[in-house]
Amino acid sequence: MKTVATRLVAATPLLLIVAVAAGVRLYHIDTQSLWLDEAYSIAQTSGDIGQVIARTATDNYPPLYNLFLWASVHIFQTNEFWARLPSAVFATLNVVAVYWFAAAFGHRKAGLVAATLLALSPFHIWYSQEARMYALFGLSSTWFAFASLRYVTAPSVARGVLVTLAGAAVLYSHTFGPLYLAAIVGGFVLAILVWRDFAAARVWRYLLLVVGAVVLFVPWAWLLIDRTRSIAAKPFGIPTPSPAWVGNSLLQVVSGGPGLLLVGLGVAFFIAVAAPRGGVADERAGASPAVPEGSLRAVGLVLASWALVPPAVAYLLSVEVTPVFLSRYFLASLPAIVLLAGLGFEKVMTTWIRATIVAAGVILLSVATVAAYSPQQRDDWRAAAQYLTAHLNPARDCLVFFKGYGVVGMNAYPWPKPVCVTYAYDMVDLVGYGSSPSKYFVVVDDVDGPRSALLDHLAGKGLNLSATASFTNVDILTFDHRSRTAPGAVADQPPATPAPAAAQPANDQSAPPAAPIFFTVTIDAWSDAYNGDPILVLRVGNNVVASAAVASHDKAVPQTLTFSVPIDAGGGPAGLDLLLTNDLYGGPGQDRNIHIKRISIGGKDVPLGQLTLAPDKYNKVDGNHLDLDTGNVPATLPRPADGWPSSN
Q1: Is residue 58's pLDDT more than 90?
Q2: Taking a C-beta distance cutoff of 8 angstroms, is the pair 199, 152 a contact?
Q3: CA dist., res. 627 & res. 638, Å (int)
Q4: What pLDDT shows up at residue 119?
Q5: Among candidates 191, 206, 143, 150, which has minimal Cα distance to 171?
Q6: Backbone φ, ψ for residue 232 (5° rounding)
Q7: Can you say how many angstroms the Cα of residue 369 is from the centroid of all Cα atoms in its chain?
């Protein structure tokens, strides 16, 4: 009983640190809205496990995190708390793992300091409250380093299995998994060569275990290679890293200015142990080193490689191949950094007085780091969806996701789905959708450029901005017809009182304004859907006159779409363009396409061979149907010589 009590007392500091770590990660975890990347992760977890893996295969990341996310939202609920809870759990376990790593070679004080620094790291807390894979990636990297340390110091079958499984977890957690696996393995190979009395056979046994992890990753590796080629061919918005970008990104990893002291202590430690020296014994009197002589120096090599090699390689890839340098990708370096700092602090904790002073200093430094940290706010799609719920009339209004921005983010929350939902990729697509909607709600990002361009374009179309709702990283602009201003008139002035109308003879036969004349277009079509149905748009000249989602996915049962198109919409001999406007391709079997079986104008079928196809290798007439596989590339039906047949 005394032994249990002694162990409990010894474990109390770690338990307190873990409790604090869990508390700060759960505190206000659901306060902010899910942002766009989180919404993508949640969208990928709908359906069964097979569908989760298939959807994840179209993204840039391996599937391990999405499997945990799928379990959380399916067992509980799809909301901010349950979506982010797995990351909070992984991050808290990472605090325990850094302690285990240091304790595994006899440095428990350093482990407690490192655990404290990680527990109170604002950068780590931020990604502990995000429904993405970064917290899992950090944990799996630490777990692999710990398993490697245990194996190379005292090999066993169980520890070897742990090395292989932990290595596979690193690879399946993030695209940078191979970088971190190679960095940690390289560090341990150097460490084995530095430690004395280690046979070369141990290096080969360790490397064979790592090969086992790579073999487990082979089923996903070919997909990752294919995605890497796609990213290299078409970068996704990360800038080429300048020295300022690199410095700012690494500064974010250590949580800003006060956190730089952690890096300084780590570097000081590494320099201090660079010269040959004896092993460092366990802090208990009379205890022998947990690993052979030279262990502290060798572990320093592991930690330095773990912390520094992945950012260095990522920088070279960004300069020579394609930009991939983002601070959050290096969250897995943070455990190594705090371990280096913890070992640096431990060097001065030789008495209980010094230990007390160092502990107080670490806590104060961590609090100062938290106070000085200013993270960015996440996209507020929750507020945007609530705004649409309060203001959008599904029967009368049209919702436009300009350039497709925000569709996935908005779909993470409930909002009224109007009949007219469109994805405008060009300015000319912004007017004409639906059947004369009362208002257009246009979703854009909060950059001024798109907003200014929208105002200028829509003002020229007779639509004026009537309301702007601004949320974090997203704006919803409302346009309507109620405030049109005649050319040359002064806007926002009260109209002059009209003069009384002159009396008209009773037999005045003046005709009322002519009603618009329409022709009817009927289309039978089916589609391939991927993260939503494709949108078919009809355009005459530069005017988009109609659109609809093609919701049938069965070739045998095509969907019949009927449109009424104003005959004068083109203002001349313009043809009728058919376009797929929201094309999306995620890989083999993950695509949005439209297949048109029949086109009828005014009740008369039109041979598909009469359509003029813009040069494109995917849009084509295939047998008895037309394939629209490329976005915004039209198939055009020329205007008949005698005009469009009236349906009036």
Answers
A1: no
A2: no
A3: 18
A4: 93
A5: 143
A6: -65, -35
A7: 27
Pairing relationship of beta strands 398-401 and 420-422 according to DSSP bridges: parallel
Residue 504 has pLDDT above 50, yes or no: no
Q: Which amino acid is at 397?
A: D
Of 458, 454, 451, the C-alpha closest to 475 is 451
- On whether the CB atoms of residues 83 and 75 are closer than 8 A, the answer is no
C-alpha closest to that of 535 among 517, 564, 561: 561
Q: Report d(CA 338, CA 344) in Å as an integer.
A: 10
Asked if 524 contacts 598 with a C-beta cutoff of 8 angstroms, the reply is yes
Number of DSSP helices (H) and strands (E) in the chain, helices first:
19, 18
Residue 261: the pLDDT is 63
Pairwise CA distance, residues 635 & 423, whole Å: 19
Cα separation, 107 vs 90, whole angstroms: 23
The tokens for 525 are: 């079509």
State the Cα–Cα distance between residues 221 and 171, nearest whole angstrom: 9
Q: Residue 429 has which token pair?
A: 């697509």
Please state, in angstroms and rounded to a whole number, the distance separating the CA atoms of residues 643 and 639. 6
Alpha-carbon gap, residue 298 to 70, rounded angstroms = 40
First to last CA, the chain: 95
Give CA–CA dist 163/148, Å, rounded.
6
Pairing of strands 398-401, 439-444: parallel
Burial of 177 (0-12, 13-18, 19+ CB in 10 A): buried
Q: Fill in the DSSP letter of residue 242.
A: P
| HSE toward the beta carbon, residue 409, CA cutoff 13 A | 26
- Residues paired with 471 in a beta bridge: 474
On whether the CB atoms of residues 262 and 158 are closer than 8 A, the answer is no
Please report the pLDDT score of residue 646 as a whole number: 67
Q: What value does the mean pLDDT take over residues 84-88? A: 98
Task: Name the residue among 422, 336, 315 with its Cα closest to residue 145.
Answer: 336
Tens digits of residue pLDDT in 101-146: 999 988 898 899 899 999 988 899 999 999 999 999 999 999 999 9
d(C-alpha 170, C-alpha 98), whole Å: 16
Alpha carbons 180 and 144: distance in angstroms, whole number = 10
Residue by residue, what is the 3-state secondary structure of 440-458? EEEEECCCHHHHHHHHHHH
Residue 493, judged by CB atoms within 10 A of its CB (0-12, 13-18, 19+), counts as exposed
Rg for the chain, CA atoms, rounded: 32
**Which pTM was predicted?**
0.73
Task: Answer yes or no: are the C-beta atoms of 496 and 546 closer than 8 Å.
Answer: no
Q: Look at residue 548 and give its three-state secondary structure.
A: strand
Ordered DSSP codes for 453-514: HHHHHHHHTT-EEEEEEEETTEEEEEEESTT---TTPPTTPPPPPPPPPPP--TT--PPPPP
Helix (H) or strand (E) holding 362: helix 352-372
**CA dist., res. 639 & res. 633, Å (int):** 18
Which residue spans within 128-228 are E strands per DSSP?
none
**Count of beta carbons in the 10 Å neighbourhood of residue 317:** 16
